[in-house]
Amino acid sequence: MEERLEIISETQDYLLINKKSGIIVNRSDTTNKEKTLQDIIDEKGLIDKNDPDEDFKKRSGIVHRLDKETSGLLIIAKNSKAFYSLQNQFKQRFVKKTYLALTHGKIVPDKGEIRSSIGRLAWNRKRFGVVAGGREAITSYEVISNFSFDPELRTEGQFPISNEILSYVRLFPKTGRTHQIRVHLKHIGHPIFSDEHYAGRKTARADRKDLPRIFLHAEKISFNDPRTGERLGFESKLPIELKNFLNGLEEIVTN
User: Fold this and answer.
1) 216 in Cβ contact with 69 (< 8 Å)
2) Least C-beta-crowded within 10 Å: which of 80, 132, 192, 242?
3) Per annotation, catalytic residue among 67, 110, 195, 225
């Protein structure tokens, strides 16, 4: 795995990185054979190991997470004071995030809000869904554009639906539940392209012949500087593999 981190911004209190797709953020019992972002942080000495706070060091300063295949902006606190400041900002919803996704189908209306509680599925504890008694989850969205596959460029049989419309959408999660955006888009009938967990096995298998990662990118983030309180905002461009995939599609105007 490429261990060089793309640092977008760095102060004495935090690192803001542009995480690549394919990197697992947190260590766990199931990742003992794969190097994680947490391992890289510890090996490179990116946080203050002399800080007395054990919880901060145990988490390697990681305040939030992105799924393995999701790319984009991620904050790492370098000391416990910044760690708890940023953690509190997430809890108070002061941190604002924006994602880009490509979904199956035409999303209607082209602007809206999804309010559906999310929890673990009883029959598969590694997956999440909209369930009664789950935690509150809110995601706003706006459709940027719609695309169709060019029949002359499409390999026969690769896509499950001929001339299917795809929606390129910007999403604004107001809460931070695990797999929230993925679950919410599936819930409204528009799973993310190449999502192995939530798009359905047959659809995801077909998608991944053309795009071997989920089309989900953490595009923007804003938060208060943990030392000065200044409001900061950052942006990450769409990765080249996602940009190239979009460029290979035909943009359409729908009625």
Assistant:
1) yes
2) 132
3) 67
